[in-house]
Design brief:
Chain lengths: ~425, ~300
């Protein structure tokens, strides 16, 4: 009898804990859309059309901004009830996938990726829900990043670009100029190390969170990258191998922060603002962070390139997309009204400036540059930036793949062999 | 007076346990069912099930280069944390079972690591061992033991060892209090009889204390095996399984598969494999231990 009780107890306990572990995964699975309640009947006269949106939380002010937007929008549109859920970046993918799996896909979604939703046929083409007036405001090069099968599936809501941040006082004390090439970069790092061994000359983040940016900083400035000129995966190019070896060599030479695989961009940002890291690559938000935390004498420059190869900044873009929930005309018009209101020049510029991002519309650019003169230079940078190939369905695997390759090389792996294996896995 | 035997009387015990059964069904059995279903399904990156996949998800997981390493890490993690925290927790319980001044305060302090959120505990440990601003380096420098900062995590193995240390630290209180409750239930007459027979400290420990506290420790160990095996916050907060999966356990690995790589079917397969391993371990341990108790 005891044996049976023991077995039952073990079963119950194991079941209980696995259930807890598994509960975060999306549970239901039916395709949502067409049979969602909103699609069943057009809104009757006098009945409000409800539009549900999930928006990413960029910072402390995001939720308040959206709350104000919703209040003003609903007051101005008596026939529409806009509901916006602001969700942190940590949870947003889980929340969205769970909603989709349970047949409760949002109408509008503000997130970074779109290809996975498009691949499942869950999205509506942008031109169906974005008015011509709003559509014309976007930079064509930004829209091009959301094209699959010649159709634009999402529109950009904001962007950020990366540049080289340097501590001008440390560079001056070490007697070095701002590096423009890899050769100069290594020499500058060695000079800074000789000046003060306690300072990390170069900040590197190859963590699970953003190691793909690290790969891009060096691959794109060495003539390599994720894809070739035809848009096919080209992960194992000689340029990429050279780029990975270069950055790992800097780490192994003791010229960077101690642990690039666990120290994130935010850790580096803290150390840069404290004068512990002399140079790092980061987004435009670092300027404000430095001014608020320590006030070091910093400068901004282009990313160093390998010799005289063409340089490129790394751009990051987030998007707004519309799920195909089988809308009536009135519902689709309500979606368009929300999008138009969001991209209306003044609230849009206010939203972009709130979290120090860069605008994705030409009119927003003008307003932002006028409101913040420091942003004008960044707007130029974003114009020449390259973006991750997020429209390709394999992007999530490539992203994690290049991070793993860099970390493996840091532990002694061979960059060529590892990138060959990744290329074979992704491109077949 | 004895109650008349009616159908209602017969059903009464089942009615009492019915709420528990309903709750367990909704919150445990149903999600388990979904995890199993997902493990055997083709799941898209957006989380939609597109059909039956047979064992394809399991084949991909087991055929992957990283799974063996992650499984080994999980076993090392579980064994070290459970064994060491059980030994240390039991020793601490023996100490706290003695009469001494300030015993109540000492017992309260031991609860602290258990009462604090794991994420906070792990963050504090990460801060302690940080090379640049860590408390450990600052303390040792202040005491004059070191002159320059020491890198306490030069290799992935070192990182993993610190994570195990953190795991032991937060697990000790649970073992300690379970063992303490067992120790306090031992009748003092056993010890009095042993003293009369001339038994020394070790003889009392091995012949009276340990056999009588064993049922409590068994329950604590089985629960710990499951908790520790499934523990997520410590590894995730300190290293996120980096570098290159060297510090991943099955739980952090499946989290990355599901939410970083969008491979939810494979993640569910890892979850099922972990479940089966736990089930076997917990069953074997409980059955063998209770069988020995019967003998």
């Amino acid at each position: 009898m005891k044996k049976i009780i023991a077995l039952l107890m073990a079963l119950v306990m194991a079941f209980g804990l696995v259930a807890c572990g598994g509960s975060s995964a999306p549970a239901e699975t039916e395709a949502p859309k067409a049979d969602a309640p909103a699609a069943e009947a057009p809104a009757a006269a006098g009945e409000k059309v409800e539009i549900n949106m999930i928006a990413a939380q960029y910072g402390n002010e995001t939720a308040d901004w959206w709350a104000n937007f919703v209040t003003e929008f609903n007051a101005a549109h008596e026939d529409i009830n806009l509901v916006v859920d602001v969700v942190s970046w940590n949870d947003i993918y889980t929340v969205v996938n769970t909603r989709i799996a349970n047949g409760q896909a949002p109408d509008l979604l503000n997130i970074d990726v779109f290809a996975d939703y498009q691949a499942d046929g869950l999205l509506l083409p942008a031109e169906e829900w974005c008015s011509e007036e709003t559509y014309a405001k976007f930079f064509p090069s930004f829209l091009a990043e959301s094209i699959v099968d010649d159709v634009v599936w999402a529109v950009p809501d904001l962007a950020s670009a990366r540049a080289l941040y340097y501590n001008a006082d440390i560079l001056e004390a070490a007697g070095v100029e701002v590096p423009t090439t890899w050769e100069e970069l290594k020499a500058a790092c060695e000079a800074i190390k000789a000046y003060d061994a306690e300072i990390y000359p170069w900040g590197v983040d190859m963590t699970t969170d953003e190691g793909q940016a690290c790969f891009a900083y060096y691959a794109w400035n060495n003539g390599g990258g994720f894809v070739d000129a035809d848009g096919n995966w080209a992960l194992n190019s000689a340029e990429n191998v050279e780029a990975v070896n270069f950055i790992v060599d800097l780490v192994n030479s003791g010229l960077t922060n101690t642990d690039p695989t666990t120290e994130t961009r935010y850790d580096l940002q803290d150390m840069f603002a404290a004068g512990k890291v002399a140079m790092m690559i980061g987004p435009n938000q670092i300027s404000k962070y430095c001014e608020q935390n320590g006030g070091i004498n910093y400068g901004i420059a282009s990313l160093p390139t390998n010799g005289d190869k063409a340089g490129a900044s790394v751009g990051v873009m987030d998007r707004i997309m519309c799920f195909d929930n089988g809308y009536t005309e009135a519902e689709l018009a309500a979606v368009t009204a929300v999008v138009d209101a969001f991209y209306d020049d003044e609230p849009y510029a206010d939203w972009v400036l709130m979290e120090d991002f860069l605008p994705a519309t030409s009119t927003g650019n003008e307003l932002c540059a006028a409101a913040d003169p420091g942003m004008a230079a960044w707007i130029d940078v974003i114009g020449s930036a390259k973006f991750y190939p997020a429209a390709k369905a394999e992007w999530a695997d490539v992203k994690q793949g290049v991070i793993a390759v860099q970390q493996e090389v840091l532990l002694g792996g061979n960059a060529q062999e590892l990138l060959d294996a990744l290329q074979a896995e992704i491109a077949g | 007076m004895k109650k008349p035997y009616t159908l209602l009387n017969k059903a009464e015990p089942y009615l009492w346990i019915l709420p528990s059964i309903i709750l367990m069904s909704i919150f445990i059995i149903v999600p388990i069912g979904f995890v199993f279903r997902m493990a055997f399904s083709q799941v898209t990156k957006a989380g939609l099930i597109k059909g039956f996949a047979g064992f394809a998800n399991f084949e991909k997981v087991l055929g992957g280069a990283k799974f063996a390493m992650v499984l080994k890490n999980t076993i090392v993690w579980t064994i070290f944390v459970v064994v060491l925290s059980t030994v240390l927790g039991f020793i601490l319980a023996l100490l706290l079972n003695n009469e001494f001044k300030g015993r109540k305060i000492a017992r309260a302090i031991v609860v602290f690591p258990w009462a604090t959120t794991l994420v906070i505990q792990a963050s504090v440990w990460k801060f302690i061992i940080d090379i640049d601003y860590g408390a450990l380096n600052t303390l040792l420098k202040t005491l004059g033991i070191i002159s320059t900062n020491v890198n306490w995590t030069p290799t992935p193995e070192a990182y993993f060892a610190w994570e195990i240390a953190c795991g032991i630290f937060v697990t000790i209180p649970f073992v300690c209090f379970t063992a303490l409750s067992g120790l306090q239930s031992i009748d003092s007459s056993y010890y009095e009889a042993a003293i009369v027979d001339g038994a020394n400290y070790w003889q009392k420990l091995f012949n009276i204390t340990i056999p009588l506290v064993k049922p409590s420790l068994t329950v604590a160990t089985v629960l710990n095996i499951i908790y520790v095996f499934n523990s997520f916050p410590i590894v995730w907060t300190i290293t996120k399984g980096d570098p290159a999966n060297r510090t991943d356990t099955l739980v952090t690995y499946l989290y990355k598969l599901a939410f970083y790589n969008g491979k939810q079917g494979e993640a569910a397969a890892v979850s099922v494999i972990g479940f089966l391993i736990l089930l076997v371990c917990a069953s074997v341990y409980m059955v063998s231990t209770l069988k020995k108790g019967d003998e």
